[in-house]
């Protein structure tokens, strides 16, 4: 077997390079083949069944948090959250909000729902509680090869009761999925 050393491939004619039938190109390292805009890696949480709740009108971290380490600074991260939530109270309005933070090297940046208390969850004329699912997808450009942690925060407005970020039953819950999209 011989070894071919080359920095670039080009065609002698035409615009395609063909690998003959029955032959393969074998790459021995993860990430050895990179095509722009392909998924480089996927990180997913298991089912998050534990709950967190907020009884005060302040932003609070939820238990929806997950980290990924991009392989290139040109990569983007596609963030998917699927979060069961419950607004509970006796007022005419039950209002809450969610926002997404990115943390790299101890520095936290608000990246989704950047208006400090913009309502994402709102029920009018409710009698006691409202259950729903918040599903969200966001494309982030962290521009780093350091670990990136994404954390969802919740907020309960002053005129509401409790804002539960939880599972409807102990065995059900939401999840987080992070995909590195190669640049």
Task: Give the biggest sheet.
Answer: 6 strands, antiparallel
Please give the domain count. 1
- Shape, per Cα inertia axes: elongated
Indicate the structural class. mainly beta
Percent range for β-strand residues: over 45%
Which architecture does the CATH hierarchy give at level 2? Sandwich
If helices are DSSP runs of H or I spanning 4 or more residues, what is the number of helices?
A: 0
Fraction in helix: under 10%
Uncertain runs with pLDDT below 50, 5 residues or more? none
CATH top level class name: Mainly Beta
Indicate the radius of gyration in whole angstroms: 22 Å
Q: Please, what is the average pLDDT?
A: 81
Distance between the termini: 34 Å
What is the helix/strand order?
Answer: EEEEEEEEEEE
The total strand number stands at 11
Q: What is the fold-level CATH name, i.e. the topology?
A: Jelly Rolls
Task: Explain the overall architecture.
- This protein has 183 residues and is mainly beta.
- The chain has one domain (39-181): Jelly Rolls (Sandwich), CATH 2.60.120.
- The protein has strands spanning 39-44, 52-54, 60-68, 76-88, 93-104, 107-112, 121-124, 129-140, 148-156, 162-165, 175-181.
- The strands form two sheets. Strands 1, 2, 4, 8, 10 and 11 form a six-stranded antiparallel sheet that branches. Strands 3, 5, 6, 7 and 9 form a five-stranded antiparallel sheet that branches.
- A hairpin with a 2-residue loop joins strand 5 and strand 6.
- The radius of gyration is 22 Å and the shape is elongated.
């Amino acid at each position: 077997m011989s070894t071919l050393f080359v920095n670039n491939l080009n065609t002698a004619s035409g615009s395609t390079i063909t690998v003959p039938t029955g032959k393969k190109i074998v790459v021995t390292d993860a990430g050895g083949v990179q095509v722009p805009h392909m998924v480089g890696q996927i990180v997913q949480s298991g089912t998050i069944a534990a709950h967190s709740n907020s009884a005060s009108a302040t932003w609070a971290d939820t238990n929806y948090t997950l980290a990924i380490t991009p392989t290139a600074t040109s990569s983007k991260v596609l963030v998917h959250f699927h979060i069961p939530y419950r607004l509970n109270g006796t007022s005419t309005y039950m209002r809450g909000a969610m926002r997404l933070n990115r943390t790299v090297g101890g520095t936290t940046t608000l990246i989704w729902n950047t208006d400090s208390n913009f309502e994402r969850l709102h029920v009018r004329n409710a009698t006691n509680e409202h259950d729903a699912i918040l599903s969200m997808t966001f494309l982030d450009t962290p521009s780093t090869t350091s670990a990136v942690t994404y954390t969802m925060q919740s907020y309960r407005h002053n005129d509401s009761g409790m804002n539960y970020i939880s599972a409807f039953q102990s065995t059900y819950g939401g999840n987080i999925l992070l995909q590195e999209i190669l640049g």
